[in-house]
Amino acid sequence: MKITIRQDDFDRIVQHALAQKPDEACGLVAGIDSPEGVREIKKVYFLTNTDHSNEHFSIDPREQLLAVRDMRANGFAPLGNWHSHPETPSRPSEEDKRLANDPHASYLILSLAGEGNPVLNAFHVEGGQENRTVRKEELLIIQEGREMAETGITVDEKIDITDVVCPVTFVKTKVALEELDEGQILQVHLNSGEPVRNVPRSVKEEGHQVLDLRENEDGTYELFIKKVGD
Question: Which of 115, 110, 78 is nearest to 192 (CA)?
């Protein structure tokens, strides 16, 4: 399943989740399933986590009912839900998998573990409690009429910095950027923790543009940087 979400909706999810820290934030997503097989998120709902916990969430049932009524009034279908992980990666926890009871829903998880670098992924969960299957779905962020994703960015150079620690991680990234022309794009393969927190921030401080940050299945990340200036 391919899913699209507008940049402004993604930004609103991030801002709401940050405001709810240290608790998990949660809500619903609605839109349409196109004949081409694309799930288009048209509206995001921000609902109350009645658990008030940083490890799990429960959606306020009254707010959920009002949201579903609003979906129907706007001609949208319920597509799934979203919630944040304030301190952990963007992948389903055992609790998330246990509570994912709708095989038709998309489950969006926003990780705030990397300071200043929120990561949003979508998942499909199916099967019984004893044999839950989790599949990562392709999520595209629509920005200014363009699709931004790992398959939609033309990369000019790639480097792997998973074998070094900070501050060498940024030094290697900076050297690689210096070898590029203005406007070219560098893809950086890096570890979680300090690298994913520090390298994007340092790159921005140097004046370059961070295009995207994607979490891999193994917990590493792909950082896409557009060089600005010579």
Answer: 115
Residues shown for the chain: 230
Model pTM score: 0.65
Domain of residue 214, CATH code: 3.30.110.40
Domain hosting 107: range is 2-147
Active site residue: 32, 38, 166, 228, which one?
166
Q: Final residue of a domain: which of 119, 147, 175? A: 147
Q: Is 26 a catalytic residue?
A: no
The DSSP element (H or E) to which 201 belongs, if any, is helix 194-205
Same domain, 136 and 163: no
pLDDT in tens, the chain (230 residues): 789 999 889 999 999 999 999 999 999 999 999 888 899 999 999 999 999 999 999 999 999 999 999 999 989 999 999 999 999 999 999 999 999 989 899 999 999 988 788 899 999 998 887 788 899 998 988 865 444 444 456 778 889 999 999 999 999 999 999 999 888 889 999 999 999 999 999 999 999 998 888 888 788 888 889 999 87
Q: Are residues 82 and 164 in the same domain?
A: no
